[in-house]
Amino acid sequence: MAAEVRTPDQAGRGSLATRIVLTCVAVAGVAVLVAGLVMAGLARRSAQNVLQQSLAAQADVIAGQVDQRGLSSRAAGLGRVAQVVRGQGIVVVLLLPRRGVQSTDGSSTQAAITAGLGEIGSTQQISTEVRVGGTDYLVEARGLGDSSGFALVEPVRLAADTRRTLVRNILFALGAGLLVAALAGTLLGRLLGRPLRRTADVAAAMRQGRRDLRAPVEGPTEVAEVAAAVNELSIALQHSEARQREFLLSVSHELRTPLTAVHGFAESLADGVATDPRHAGHVIQQESQRLERLVSDLLDLARIGADQFQLDLAQVDLRETLVACAEVWRVRCERQGVRFRLDLPPVPAVTTTDPRRIRQVLDGLAENALRVTPPQAQLTMSLGHAPGAVTIQVRDGGPGLAVEDYAVAFEPGVLNQKYRGRRPVGSGIGLALAHGLVTRLGGTLTAGPAPEGGAAFTLVLPAT
């Protein structure tokens, strides 16, 4: 099997496996980073909730233990509490009658005031979070009656060791995720790349002319579909090339027959051994005309799909075209003992087309029909109307075609290959040329069984 040659542009684009690995690694990295950020937020929120609950519990205990009998005793008790909790990083902010909010820490005082300590009711509880000077503070305030109260204020800080642990866990998760993604991407790249490379190798071998190779249909569904499509293409190319070879063989046979006749009679004339020079010249003329028609048909068939293929379009009454065509084919049918019939509508059948090409199609169909029609059978040309179209039929009373042959009747050389040696056949290009001409004229040409017993070829053109 031929090795695939990669161009510099292909090499620069990188392989599918490499792209899959990089994509997996990128996706895993983004996923881990997003998860780390979410986890950090959740950790901070969880720690904050724990701190808030702890602070609320301490505030409830303090509120229950503060002496309610007098303002001086209450202030003294809160002062002692402030000294106890100061070691925990908690600031006690007092609300005293006529003195207002009192504290040794300005930021904590501002946090307590922002939380609403200055207007707290006698039994009111405040549990909130406020931001002062770019720092978040947890505030637990309690009212004690007589326009007094207190607030426990604690800044929200994530401990350094907790931050380090969190960062370490995120980095570990990131590394593990990237490693797993790289392994998964490598396996996935191999899973996808191996059958694709095999399919590419088969396609490269097909480019070199091989048609006997098949790509393994394996891997994911999409990859298997690509391999199956390449296999179907290989089979189609094999069949198409086989038909082309058969067509070329049939054409070479058709060319060889008149060439042999021309060569033989020309040689006899040159050697002076021809008993009837006029007959020899007549045969040479006929066979050269046959060669000319065959070469002309081949050239038309080759050029029919090209933009420069010339069509001389005009409005034509197809009745006149069929009458002129019938004059020729009625005589030819009489010579072979075949009955000829022409059916025309009473009204004009006008369409925009090329009358010369229509005549070429009709002559080709009539020649094929007459070739297989036995004496006393009938060859029919008919013209009719259909909604928005005109139809022409050429029908014969010959042996007809097998049902499956009507679908492939217009493929070059197919009928010639099948029926050669069983009945008179043409070059194998007449029907293909007729179909191409009609298609180029914007019409359709189909084949089917005829009521006369043979085959019917129906030409449909848009009406004007």
Question: Could you explain how this protein is built, in words?
Answer:
The protein contains eleven helices and twelve strands. It has 464 residues and is α+β, with helices and mostly antiparallel strands. Among the domains are: 93 residues, Beta-Lactamase (2-Layer Sandwich), CATH 3.30.450; 71 residues, Orthogonal Bundle (Helix Hairpins), CATH 1.10.287.130; 149 residues, 2-Layer Sandwich (Heat Shock Protein 90), CATH 3.30.565. The strands form three sheets. Strands 2-1-5-4-3 form a five-stranded antiparallel β-sheet. A five-stranded mixed β-sheet has the order 7-9-10-12-11. Strands 6-8 form a two-stranded antiparallel ribbon. α2 runs antiparallel to α5. The chain is elongated, with a radius of gyration of 49 Å. The chain starts with 7 loop residues before the first helix and ends with a strand. The N terminus is likely disordered. Its cofactor is Mn(2+); Mg(2+). GO terms for molecular function: ATP binding; phosphoprotein phosphatase activity; phosphorelay sensor kinase activity.
How many beta-strand segments? 12
Low-confidence runs of at least 5 consecutive residues = 1-12, 67-71
Radius of gyration: 49 Å
Q: Remind me, CATH topology of the domain at 314-462?
A: Heat Shock Protein 90
Element string (H = helix, E = strand): HHHEEHEEEHHHEHEEHEEHHEE
Write the CATH homologous superfamily of the domain at 314-462: Histidine kinase-like ATPase, C-terminal domain
Number of H/I helices: 11
Largest sheet: 5 strands, antiparallel
Strand order of the largest sheet: 2-1-5-4-3
Characterize the overall form: elongated
The CATH class of the domain at 314-462: Alpha Beta
Classify the beta-strand content into a percent band.
15-25%
Intertermini distance: 58 Å
| Percentage of residues in helical conformation | 55-70%
Q: Structural class, judged by helices and strands?
A: alpha+beta
What would you say the CATH architecture of the domain at 314-462 is? 2-Layer Sandwich
Please state the average pLDDT score. Answer: 79
Catalytic activity: ATP + protein L-histidine = ADP + protein N-phospho-L-histidine
Transmembrane segments: 20-43, 170-192
Main location: membrane
Keywords: ATP-binding, Cell membrane, Hydrolase, Kinase, Magnesium, Manganese, Membrane, Nucleotide-binding, Phosphoprotein, Protein phosphatase, Stress response, Transferase, Transmembrane, Transmembrane helix, Two-component regulatory system, Virulence
